[in-house]
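Researcher: Structure prediction, please.
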Amino acid sequence: MPGDHFYYSNANYILLASIIEKVSGVSFSDYVQKNIFKPLKMEQTILNNSIYKTVKNRAIGYTEVEGQYYKTSFPALTYKGDGQILTSPRDMFKWHQNLKNATIGSPELWRKMHEKALLNDGTTINYGLGVEFETHNGYNAVGFDGMSVGGFVSKYLYFPELDLAFFTTQNTFDDDFRERFFQLVDFYIPHNKSNQDNWKYNEVKLSSSELKKYEGTYLYYYNDDDRKANSITLKGNTLYALTLEGDVIAELKPIGHHKFTFLMGDSRAIVQFSFKNDKKQYTYDELENTTPWLFEEFQSYKHSKKVLKEFEGQYFNKDFQISKKLQMEDGILYFYYRNGSRRVAMTSLSKELMEIPISPIKFLRNEKNQVISFILMGIVFEKL
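Model: Predicted structure follows.
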């Protein structure tokens, strides 16, 4: 049901650009140029929807592979609305001023844009109309990350209480970009102690035998960006959350029935364990009115070639008229995209799960233990 869950997808921005073209009767590129860039005097900003267009002073994106940097093409030009904007820091400042002062659009529109959205059950999520909400060093902020397979990455973040905005961009897609972004922010914004001292819980005492029942390996998997796995381990008489490599993430302090605090840097969360049908799981709640993450216990697994062979085949979803092919080659199971244009190797996650970039794939079997379908991003594909 629309509104039951939140799942970020670039496809929504592509759909929005298409709607704008239908309603306005002009191309999306012409529309944003006339109604946004020109009024704001963003003279170094364009929507680039052609690989053949020559753009003066344009930076080239690079991808690093084993210490070598390679020029990266920008293939995301077939569709409009999800990342074809080329701009400069000077023009981004003009855009920021527009967000502050509502130069174009009404103040009511900007207010609505910067409100956290509500799900059908009343849950507030950290997403508005095209913006994300964050908290850093005890201060609230609003902004957005811009990432592209073309080798570029950027981030804009505005702290209304301090009237400070940050924007960085670079033409290499590095995994530690966000970490370095906030290192810059920390030069200007110290920790707000007053916002953190109110977060206090009374710790309760549990024996080692009581704490030991929470041990296990747990997985939260919403999409490829939101894939998190950890192990809960008892050391001495203290419970820790560790990475799968054994590095300490946080200490878990018991504060109630199956309930623990989880402190990691600025992150303050409540972890609530439950035991259902002999299966352990826990929710991770950062107490920002967002839907808690559900971590379920899992056992890492390596599928044999015989089992991978059982997954092979053509799969089909009747509602969307979409087919997917899984095929073995040299002992590796591959997931083929539309018309076999490209493929990716599938990797084992647990006994029930394989994964590809972006999402896990869960296989289903019948009473005869035969593979009959798989579920990908909530969509069931029947095996033909």
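Model: The mean pLDDT is 84.
Researcher: Thanks, that helps.
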